[in-house]
């Protein structure tokens, strides 16, 4: 069942995100730096750029005979040139001759409250907007960078070289409108932009593509705003309907959301369509509010964990067996594991099929990994000359760009000594190499080979491994992974 989702969550602790509310002064100033933004707050009416405008390129043989409105799954939509348009700027897909959304399209066009409308690992591929106008290109790039600076989402440019890695991706289409689907649809997915779309409007549309709906249609909105139905343009009242069909609300209502309508949206006069308490402003198109950013991070959150290391070495050599888990329903990306034993430890080697790239930062070993899939684990072995130290002296810290609300299982034996950033960018070259075969590692796609030398952070001799081969699954994790693989193949099938 396809369900829309409204993600609004409580304020996180200081080390996760700034406090909730409208954009802070520092964030707003940063957003406005070197850019001029048209603010569409209380003055947006029917000619707002987020209002879907007809495009001659979309005409088809039965456009003139279509009804003006349709409904599916509890959602009412307008029909404009063969497209089902929800709440003014949300694309649901094309309609047939009767004005209905075909079943195949219907299953893809509405966001859902499960993991299958999310971009895998929190990474959003997109095509470079080379066919868009220069103004559109500048605004698109600004909007993408704004999302990356304020959330844990990462956007990557899709190219011929990485096309197989990213079968689902965004395409920014030059059109007469600002519009987007909600959540990942599968395959190529359009975000419509025009020269009339401001940077803030494109930030808004990307928010839809990530999975956000409009704030003013939350099921609890009547506790915070009023709607003057008499002032709404005929036929546009469906854009103000409260959505109760399987929706979820997280956290407090957010007047400062970039996803909120303005007071005068779809007004037939100079009177507002949305009534707010005195002193409250809505409909800003400048920057993400803190709750906007928190909402998307929560939507894509994961649950990483470390297991206690084990030692199978002998003498002064510790052979540390390290296990990293992703217990969450979604994958994580840009993982980093920091390992420390003693200040005079000499890091020797890491198993080559681990999927991790490790650098020796003098007293610390820092290992990174591009992604770790949901319901999976990665196990690898590190050899270190630790003198008199034992496995009980090992400290570890695990971090990721993906938001993880449960940080208590992301560290081991760490009293706060370890940090995400190295204290010193310099590093010492590895003195010795190990030619012994690493034991105990398991991998579902490759066999263990002799461990390579850990590279120095000052050299280009980085251990490069295929990240997809770094996770080993056993027991219930294997069953979960196989089930997930089946779901992903099913999704790829229905997206075609």
Automatic annotation (TrEMBL):
BP GO annotations: proteolysis
Annotated positions binding Zn(2+): 204, 208, 214
Cofactor(s) the protein needs: Zn(2+)
Cofactor binding notes: Binds 1 zinc ion per subunit.
Comp. bias (Polar residues): 426-448
Residue numbers spanned by region Disordered: 406-455
GO molecular function, one term: zinc ion binding
Feature: compositional bias, Basic and acidic residues: 411-423
Keywords: Hydrolase, Metal-binding, Metalloprotease, Protease, Zinc
EC number: 3.4.24.76
Residue ranges of every copy of the Peptidase M12A domain listed in the record: 108-303
Family matches, as SUPFAM superfamilies: Metalloproteases ('zincins'), catalytic domain (SSF55486)
Enzyme class: hydrolase
Active site, per annotation: 205
Protein name in UniProt: Flavastacin
Organism: Granulosicoccus antarcticus IMCC3135
């Amino acid at each position: 069942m396809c369900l829309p989702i409204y993600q609004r969550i409580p304020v996180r602790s200081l080390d996760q995100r700034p406090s909730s509310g409208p954009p802070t002064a520092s964030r707003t100033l940063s957003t406005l730096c070197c850019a001029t933004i048209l603010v569409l707050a209380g003055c947006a009416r029917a000619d707002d750029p987020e209002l879907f405008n007809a495009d001659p390129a979309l005409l088809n043989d039965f456009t003139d005979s279509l009804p003006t409105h349709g409904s599916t799954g509890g959602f009412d939509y307008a029909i404009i040139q063969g497209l089902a348009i929800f709440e003014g700027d949300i694309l649901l897909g094309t309609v047939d001759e009767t004005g209905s959304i075909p079943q195949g399209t219907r299953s893809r066009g509405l966001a859902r409250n499960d993991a299958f409308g999310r971009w895998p690992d929190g990474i959003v591929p997109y095509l470079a907007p080379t066919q868009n106008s220069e103004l559109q290109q500048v605004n698109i790039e600004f909007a993408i960078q704004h999302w990356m600076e304020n959330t844990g989402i990462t956007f990557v440019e899709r190219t011929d070289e990485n096309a197989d890695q990213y079968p689902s991706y965004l395409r920014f289409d030059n059109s007469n409108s600002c519009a987007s689907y909600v959540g990942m649809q599968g395959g190529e997915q359009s975000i419509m932009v025009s020269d009339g779309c401001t940077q803030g409007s494109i930030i808004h549309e990307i928010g839809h593509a990530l999975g956000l709906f409009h704030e003013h249609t939350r099921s609890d909105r009547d506790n915070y705003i009023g709607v003057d139905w008499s002032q709404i343009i005929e036929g546009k009242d469906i854009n103000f309907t409260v959505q109760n069909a399987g929706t979820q609300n997280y956290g407090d209502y957010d007047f400062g959301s970039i996803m909120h309508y303005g007071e005068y949206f779809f007004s037939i006069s100079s009177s507002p369509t949305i009534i707010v308490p005195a002193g409250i402003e809505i409909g800003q198109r400048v920057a993400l509010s803190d709750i906007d950013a928190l909402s998307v991070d929560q939507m894509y959150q994961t649950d990483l964990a470390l297991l206690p290391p084990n030692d199978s070495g002998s003498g002064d050599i510790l052979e540390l067996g390290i296990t990293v888990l992703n217990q969450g329903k979604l994958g994580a990306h840009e993982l980093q594991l920091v390992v420390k034993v003693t200040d005079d430890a000499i890091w020797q080697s890491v198993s080559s099929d681990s999927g991790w790239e490790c650098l020796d930062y003098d007293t610390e070993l820092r290992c990174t990994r591009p992604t770790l899939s949901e319901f999976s684990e990665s196990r690898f072995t590190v050899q270190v000359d630790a003198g008199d130290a034992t496995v009980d002296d090992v400290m570890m810290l695990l971090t990721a760009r993906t938001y993880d609300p449960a940080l208590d299982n992301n560290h081991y034996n760490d009293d706060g000594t370890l940090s995400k950033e190295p204290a010193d960018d310099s590093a010492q070259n590895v003195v010795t190499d190990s030619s012994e075969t690493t034991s105990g590692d398991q991998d579902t796609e490759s066999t263990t080979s002799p461990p390579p030398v850990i590279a120095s952070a000052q050299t280009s001799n980085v251990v490069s491994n295929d990240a997809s081969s770094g996770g080993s699954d056993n027991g219930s994790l294997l069953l979960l992974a196989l089930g997930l693989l089946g779901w992903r193949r099913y999704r790829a099938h229905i997206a075609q």
